[in-house]
Amino acid sequence: YPWQRAPETQLSEFNLTETEAMLGSYTKVLFVRDPFQRLISTFMQGMGSSPSFSSFVQDVLDIGQHNASASWKPLVSLCQPCLVQYDYVVMFGFLRQELGHLLRRAGLPADSLLPTFTDSQVRWTYSWLSEQMFSELSLQQKQQLSHFYRRDLAAFPFSSSFLSD
Length: 165
Fold this sequence. Notes:
The chain is mainly α. The protein is about 50% helix and about 5% strand. A two-stranded parallel sheet has the order 1-2. The relative contact order is 0.16. The model has no long low-confidence stretch (mean pLDDT about 85).
């Protein structure tokens, strides 16, 4: 169907028959990351104009899910896991192991194709940073964030997320 739509066409713009036909022949891989870590990353990259993490989180909560940036919008609303049956879900922090497995399943030499990943090396940094940033938030902000990302937390195994509590 590429001749019918522009490259930036959203999957939700196709009807169910078109979607099933397109996705039926692809290996579908979804890359996911803890939503709280996504917020921290967005803030650290300066994508929000807020002076503190707490005020950035308040801006995110005030904007809401419908007007949210893709940088912090809940993954479930972006990737539609109920509509798309993904073949693989790759978690940030395990890219090398999971992509190696994926390449081997595809019959490709994993070791020679994979670049050096730093995601597993920065996990401890994000753990420390998450703890620091989470402590800046009010109880109400913590509860609102957990509610904001409730579908992501239910859909994906973010067992160590600060928002899971």
